[in-house]
Fold this protein.
Amino acid sequence: MTHLDDWRELGQQLRVDSIRSSSAAGSGHPTSSMSAADLMAVLMAKYLHYDFDNPDDPRNDHLIFSKGHASPLLYAMFKAAGAISDDEMLTFRKFGSRIEGHPTPVLPWVDVATGSLGQGLPISVGVALTGKRLDRLPYRVWCLCGDSEMAEGSMWEAFEAAGHNALDNLTAVIDVNRLGQTGPTMHGWDLDAYRRRVEAFGWKAIEVDGHDVAAIDGALAEAVASNGQPSVIIARTEKGHGVTAVADIPGKHGKPLDDPDAAIAELGGRRDIHVGVAKPDFDGRAHEFPTGELSLPVYEPGTKEATRKAFGDALVALGRARGDVVAIDGEVGNSTYTEEFSEALPDRFFQSYIAEQQMIATAVGMQVRGWTPFAATFAAFLARAYDFVRMAAVSRASIAIAGSHAGVSIGEDGPSQMALEDLATFRAVHGSTVLYPSDANQTAALIPQMADRDGIVFMRTTREKTPILYDPGEAFEIGGARVVRRTDDDAVTLIGAGITLHEALKAADALASDGINARVVDLYSVKPIDAATVRAAGRETGAIITVEDHWAEGGIGDAVLDCLAEEQPHPVVVKLAVRDMPGSGTPAELMAAAGIDAEHIADAARTVIGRSREHSRDEVGSGRRE
Amino acid sequence: MTHLDDWRELGQQLRVDSIRSSSAAGSGHPTSSMSAADLMAVLMAKYLHYDFDNPDDPRNDHLIFSKGHASPLLYAMFKAAGAISDDEMLTFRKFGSRIEGHPTPVLPWVDVATGSLGQGLPISVGVALTGKRLDRLPYRVWCLCGDSEMAEGSMWEAFEAAGHNALDNLTAVIDVNRLGQTGPTMHGWDLDAYRRRVEAFGWKAIEVDGHDVAAIDGALAEAVASNGQPSVIIARTEKGHGVTAVADIPGKHGKPLDDPDAAIAELGGRRDIHVGVAKPDFDGRAHEFPTGELSLPVYEPGTKEATRKAFGDALVALGRARGDVVAIDGEVGNSTYTEEFSEALPDRFFQSYIAEQQMIATAVGMQVRGWTPFAATFAAFLARAYDFVRMAAVSRASIAIAGSHAGVSIGEDGPSQMALEDLATFRAVHGSTVLYPSDANQTAALIPQMADRDGIVFMRTTREKTPILYDPGEAFEIGGARVVRRTDDDAVTLIGAGITLHEALKAADALASDGINARVVDLYSVKPIDAATVRAAGRETGAIITVEDHWAEGGIGDAVLDCLAEEQPHPVVVKLAVRDMPGSGTPAELMAAAGIDAEHIADAARTVIGRSREHSRDEVGSGRRE
């Protein structure tokens, strides 16, 4: 057989196996796999360099299926490469199997989870950028894209970023099978429509018949030869190619074939071709940047500083100490203070411009290769990348994210710039950590821990300067809380974090002058929460006021209530939070209007203490009525 | 004076007033306003058709500042048009003023809030689509865009949608002032870089010197003449144009001028030009579609149906009854069942393809003109559009959103397709409504109420068929809850919604066979929550188990805890929720693995009842320790 025949046979095997696994599962996307089978056959047989026995080899290429629903094809490739057995392939979509419905990194050869369309290419850009600027190794990144997902804006953030950064180590393959889930795509088989777009964004575009293995070979060779430009192969394919019952027929998306045996027969039957995928063909180790002693910034108690500034300062300190730390910003570095990192460590700073999805995708791509990224923008604009954060958790990615300009206390800019939902959204990310420091020294103490922590680690920072409460060098663990004020006779507990902790302290002063002792807790670690400290405060004071510069849903108040859910007896909890849409104004005016300033906290405390005294007087027997 | 002189003078006035208002505020974005002043001067003097006395006139043009931070320019235009006084303009960014830091619809001439970049153009596309296909009126939509925001993927979703829909009633003006917040943009003054991109996406592109009023006049005329294509004016401008101290100088973003008096003098001093903006120049009323009797679908108790299917059925019924109802889908209409609407009422169905940001923006744009949009996709993928939803709330928009395929109970497709954070994220949207119906008849009953309700109204639907519990025609109010099972002697309350309600009912059966009576509450309205029913259940049974196919943060459990926060005595609350990252499997396997199936609910109930009996025995005195 010639190579061409081998490749054709391999393509047929990949189709057959895609049909077999999805038929065994009773669900899945065989037709979306069949369209790209020839493209992937030639890729794996000749162009991919990957040591399946050593998936962590830094020299390996990266293959990312942006069209994650073509997972049957990916698993068929893994089988052909000898990475998984035929039996394991046939556990597709079964409970407990690592051959999941869409690819996830529970498989060692999968870099990131895909299946939310439009994410694989942006992440591939992140990996390619890592190859060029961090690892400094000549591995290639291959990304299989669907034509439907070309409608996602995030794809164009990726095309723009890759073009701008001249990522000629990146090749996208667009499987233009013209049929989406419900019907034809916007551009059908108009390959030129895609060509015009991607060329305009600075890519080298190559059109090809995606079922002509010789042409595919030529296209891949041309892509590899591209110099100074990322390359994209725009392949005309048929969904369900090779099987008459489904080929190019609408309504065949996302379901197993009706007659798999007939289809397999039409494709020439089962094969058991094994492909010896080429191993990396160069020597070299990933570049390392210098490391040094960690010397965190210090802030003098009694002075004032913004936690966003402390974040920027501490990130530079961490970057100097650890060569694996990198920073990415969404073109607001003079607000988030990553500009300090960009000046001190320009080789490890990445400007994402105003493209938050690409910013998070870049971070995810970098951690694929073991780097420790910190991504930063206004916390409000992280909402733009929320699906990327959600999927990063499915990818088991470890990334640090900082969001500045939290809450109404940013003042005059108004609600479009105010993060008022970020604690809720980041708490609702699987395995996440949510930090909201209240002082600059505490911020600095938490930054190195963010770098060490698994999962999505979010820090919310404050725009305004706030008083330095803690001594430099004091220890603050993730998962802790700090009791800032307490007596043996506290009648109420005030729990705040960030800017509201300072309001709580002022409220405690006001209460003290009324003869009321208030415990004050700094809940700088919102998730994980220091449940023991919160529960003790509840038991010992009987009443808790939570106060947050955030909507009432999903933030500090709800985190506190959650850890008290099973407490008996249960303290009264009063949640102070932002409840009306703010406008513009000074920070003080807006915090007062939202009812989260010292005066409102003190008032709420007086009310709850009064009520609780009344309750104690009235109460005769115990607990709940039955 | 010639027209040209008038326009130049007006441009200078808009600059002077942008400087004056931001100087009075002590913050704001004068330089970003000054770059676009000449463009907007010619637009308002000659091309805009808008009756400022009648902002609700359906024939009015629409002017949307996608670069919302150029609000000083917008307000200066409103002053020049006589809509606001000079005094009011100078209340810019002051507490209580409607002249907010970024534009919001508290001003009657502002359609939508902007300030989160990359949203104004997608929403403009929605308004333009409304003009073409719903209102069927020849008003024009003008959208002022920044060059920095061209990096946002959402802009390219908009360019793609407008090109595809041939929206020649839409003109975007890109203010290419080459300087972003922190430094130069990606493309600087390379106007051709923008031209290539937008032309590739099917737009007519016109390059112009953005400070040459004659050239601007020509460009706007050419834009208006565009036939069958949306048009974009790519204008080379200077940030801070006209004032030597700031013109084209980096580091001048987002701050008032150091010496406003000198700047105003350099611009020729204050002016008080009034522009008689042309009123709409055509007759006509907005198109109306037929209305009819509402005849909701009915489902036979004892049979099974998926709530997503009931959503699709009921949406058709509502659409037949109400001509203002429209549907938009993200190319998954055979999953969300909007395909029924697309077949029954094709004139009011909009295919957004896989572009969720544009989907929500289209909905926001349509409600600007009084239409009642329902947007639908997998609930997981609504995460992609979260910033658009956040901003829609700032826009005081009323839109209905349906998210299907909630939770692990979707089964084999795996975590990328499972919405496990949607209740949390939608609860944390200001003024939102969050519905999660448990049965098809209930779903149908809620759909018309979604159309009548203000704000962001989200419905979560279930992929799997679930038993019909309720009779057709039973009333279910938003804000209610349904006690599905109760006795006078309930020892525990089980609260679920959607698929978990059915598990709770099975658990109650199992408990009953142990001689334990369990109250079962259907929390179909998660926000607003029926606090009275929840509190009564807590008081009367002493223990609540919440169960949800959602992460533990921000969903049903937290909503229940929130309304119990101040309850004394307080029931024990046990939250059952998804806590580990799921994989693939059958719905039953995955619900069991997550601990949210009937067996786990019954076990949790037995445990909590045991504990609570022990607690009652041990308890001597009352309440909290002091």
Summary: The radius of gyration of chain A is 28 Å.
